[in-house]
Amino acid sequence: MKVTNKVVPGAEQAAAFFAGEEDGAFVMVNLLKFNEKAQYPDGSDAHLTGAEAYARYGQAVRAHVEAVGGKTGYAGQVTGLLLGEVEELWDMIALAEYPSRAAMMAMIQNPDYQEIARHRTAGLAGQLNIRTRGTLG
To answer: Which domain holds residue 73?
Structure first.
């Protein structure tokens, strides 16, 4: 199994994801890998770690998820691996529920969301987003 972390999906991958037939609520599993140091394009906040920059995003994103009818769930630091093998563990796992792909699209197109997403981009070395059927309960 080949695993490639990315910060932003390519246009083709994003188009395929959002063009899929609506089939209800889903939970996005986010496997996060942080930069050692935050990487803001303007060089600001270079004293922050990637995890600290991402925490800024994490504090603000809840309101955006809730504004489109979703909710945030579990988030925690990865501390070990019981089964399987990977070259390098992710740093954190976070769960977010969305009522639909359209709701998620509306969120990421919101200019206020795009403003906070800069902290996500500065903090992440890469991630996997895994869409799962269901809800957080």
So the answer is: 11-80+87-133
